[in-house]
Write a structure and sequence with these properties.
Shape: elongated
Oligomer: single chain
Order of helices and strands: EHEHHEHEEHEEHEHEHEEEEEEEEEHHE
Distance between the termini: 20 Å
Bound molecules: pyridoxal-5'-phosphate
Number of helices: 10
Structural class: alpha/beta
Strand content: 15-25%
Low-confidence stretches: none
Helix content: 10-25%
CATH class of the largest domain: Alpha Beta
Number of strands: 19
Largest sheet: 9 strands, parallel
Length: about 375
């Protein structure tokens, strides 16, 4: 039997989380963000499962959009970084793509295409920088851009921005971005898009014509600390990561575990070696004390994460055996809890999971374990 290091993806939980998010903004359309292989959960499987529940998909780059098309996904796809090179826009019509345009270089790519091909009407989003200072046209160039490019700014164009601090409840920064963006674009007549998951949940004014939902759909809270007090946020975990104990040993007090001998047993200890490591995407910098679950009990990582293995102190567990499952995160241990111990976020833990970890898909209509 092969190594049983498996991420089980609960597809019903994805749909349920998406519907819960849509409840915050019933008037908005939903862009389901499935970039980075649907945050590690498997873009094609997620897209197939939720396509009836959203209006369009978003990915970061063209390659991700083409992979979805090759798998038969037909819903419109928004490419969030826009075209990186001029030839990319040639795929627009044939692949039914929408582009987020964020700079003048990309406008040049559009010009080259629209001089030879059909109209891009209804396929363009324009990103404006309302304060994140990463991508987007300056807000004060809005009126001039609209004047200069009437062929691209039509009643079907979407004007978008992205919030830097939506994940902090009552963030003044988020509110100032929303205010600046709305002041500029609200009366323009164009469709608007501001909110990501956190924006949709916690920032009423960010709920506009299109909300771009990512992390919450995958069951990880978008909030850095905890959900805003007034939000009864119930997200269902989507990814359940488990690996098996492949060795058990008892070591005397004072002996050390793993590379660098960084952890010294404070008492005689039972050490479980578990079949997952940094080559699987479990972060190497996860410190001693990072939690996992085994046989209903919380256990703590000890020593350094190796490429293919990690070690846990299971001294206090009864009846632990080689072959027992350890849940690294999932139903009984939230991914955000683990992320906090590691000094990262749920987004990173999910997206880093490598292709070596088998994905297994679960839904009420029947399990689907066909390869991606
Ligand atoms: C432009 C843009 N919109 C929306 C999202 C979705 O954000 P979240 O996963 O926080 O919902 C992302 C994700 O990084 C993004 O880059």
């Amino acid at each position: 039997m092969s190594r049983q290091t498996i991420a089980t993806i609960n597809l019903d939980a994805v749909t349920s989380n998406l519907i819960a998010l849509q409840g915050y903004a019933k008037q908005s359309k939903t862009v389901a963000v499935i970039k980075a292989n649907a945050y590690g959960n498997g873009a094609v499987k997620i897209a197939q499962h939720i396509q009836a529940h959203c209006d369009m998909f978003a990915v970061a780059i063209l390659q991700e959009a083409l992979e979805l098309r090759a798998s038969g996904i037909t819903l419109p796809i928004l490419v969030l970084q826009g075209p990186h090179e001029s030839p990319e826009v040639a795929h627009t019509l044939e692949q039914n793509l929408h582009w987020m345009i964020h700079n003048h270089t990309q406008l040049g790519f559009l010009d080259a295409l629209s001089s030879t091909e059909a109209s891009l009407d209804g396929r363009l989003w324009f990103k404006f920088d309302s304060g994140m200072h990463r991508l987007g046209f300056a807000l004060d160039s809005f009126a001039k851009l609209v004047d200069d490019y009437p062929q691209y700014f039509t009643p079907n164009t979407v004007i978008a921005t992205h919030l830097a601090c939506a994940d902090e409840a009552n963030s003044e920064h988020a509110q100032s971005q929303i205010d600046a963006f709305l002041k500029c674009a609200q009366t323009s007549g164009f469709a608007l898009s501001i909110a990501n998951s956190a924006g949709t949940i916690a920032h009423k004014d960010a709920r506009q014509d299109f909300n771009r939902i990512g992390i919450a759909m995958y069951g990880s809270s978008p909030f850095s600390v905890q959900a805003p007090a007034n939000q009864a946020l119930v997200l269902k975990p989507v990814m359940h990561l488990q690996a098996k104990i492949i060795a058990l040993r008892t070591i005397p007090k004072g002996d050390t575990v793993g590379y660098g001998a960084t952890w010294k047993a404070p008492r005689q200890s039972t050490i479980a070696t578990v079949a997952i490591g940094y080559a699987d995407g479990y972060p190497r910098h996860a410190p001693t004390g990072t939690p996992a679950m085994c046989n209903g009990h919380r256990i703590a990582l000890v020593g350094r994460v190796s490429m293919d293995m990690i070690t846990f102190d299971v001294t206090d567990l009864q009846n632990v055996e080689v072959g027992d499952n350890v849940e690294l995160w999932g139903d009984t241990l939230s991914i955000n809890d683990v992320a906090e111990h590691i000094g990262t976020i749920g987004y990173e833990l999910m997206t880093r999971l490598s292709s070596r970890v088998k994905r297994r898909y679960f839904c009420a209509a029947g399990n689907d374990n066909s390869p991606l």
